[in-house]
Amino acid sequence: MLGLYVHIPFCSAICNYCNFNRGLFDVGLKEQYVAALLREIASQGDGSPADTIYFGGGTPSLLEPVEVGAIISACRRAFSLAPEVEITLEGNPETVTPERLAAFRAAGVNRLSFGVQSFRDGELKRLGRLHSAERAVEAIGLARAEGFDNISLDLMMWLPGQDVAQWLGSVEDAIRVGPEHMSLYILEVYPHLPLKQDIDRFGWSQESDEGVADMYETAMAKLESAGFEQYEISNVCRSGRQSRHNIKYWTDGNWLGFGPGAHSTWQGTRWRTVASTEDYVQRIHAGLPVAVDRRHLSNEERLGDALFTGLRMRDGIDLEVLSTRYGVDVWHRFGVRLAPHLDAGLLLRQDERLWLTRKGMLLANEVMSVFV
Ligand code: SF4
User: Fold this and answer.
1) Residue 237 CA to ligand 1 centre (angstroms)
2) CB hemisphere CA count around 164 (13 angstroms)
3) 161 and 126 in contact (C-beta within 8 Å)?
4) Burial class (CB in 10 A: 0-12, 13-18, 19+), 257
5) CA-to-CA distance for 183 and 260, rounded, in angstroms?
6) pTM for the predicted model, two decimal places
7) Is the beta carbon of 61 within 6 A of some atom in ligand 1?
8) 199-213: per-residue pLDDT in tens?
9) How do residues 66-98 score in pLDDT, each as one tens digit?
10) Ligand 1 atom index nearest CA of 11
11) CA distance 263 to 273
12) Is 210 helix (H, G, I), strand (E, B) or coil?
């Protein structure tokens, strides 16, 4: 079944580390944008079955619940939504109130993903986040009180000024608030973004490579002992609470992305939407196409993608299944170059199953480069 991704490119403030496609919230542009989005969804729909909708951003929780409801209705009219459709809304803790949460739920949202990033106020300030740790805990409590029983939160490690103990403190706080799902990312400091200058100006330090490896491995072990299972390099969940939408990206699935910069992959064809929000709105209202770089993927590219993304999953890949699907003996093709990673303890193979060890997950780019 299809997954539907809806991009909401607005934020109340721009975090100093952010490399996403977003801009400052502007109510006029937002209204034109939602109207454009509704038209794009209607024009793409052909009644195909879909079982996930994911509002990502940006900060989708800045939308009015009635706008979220209208977008969900547009998806319902354009596609054949499964009765148990998973509808995720990403949000920042400072944007939610009991009334808004209740209205999002009434509109059909049944999964929330909060951008918490840290439970340490100093760390949040250094990242330019607008919420405090206390506000994050409160937001999750409000969501629970409004009946949300599928909540995810994002945390980031390797933050400036963060040591291993502080990071593990955030992980423990996250366990305490009891989400069903967590995504744990390692901060990437891009040289062109303000965080890099802030780090240089204020002399903030980051843990060593060994330190960040310790952060990752100890956090995952801690989460496992608290009853979470790691199902992907950066994601853990309570039993059965994987992100059904994101799994489509990692298991060779089909999805359509709506909104600026969104990517789509459907039946071997891939495209993206123009990146600028203003350009997107103007094109849609002028009846011009917004999809660019549309191309059919070769068998070779599809196999490379399936290996690259499939190995992100804890269960790894089934060599026989992929060999049959793509008509290529995968081990014959890549085995010689993968063998050193098996010897180094980054990969494990049992019969036809191949998967990354935890150490391998940390060095995944090195292993995956075999397929690129
Ligand atoms: S809230 Fe998220 S998308 Fe918005 S600026 Fe911060 S990191 Fe970027």
Assistant:
1) 23
2) 13
3) yes
4) buried
5) 24
6) 0.96
7) no
8) 999 999 999 999 999
9) 999 999 999 999 999 999 999 999 999 999 999
10) 4
11) 6
12) helix
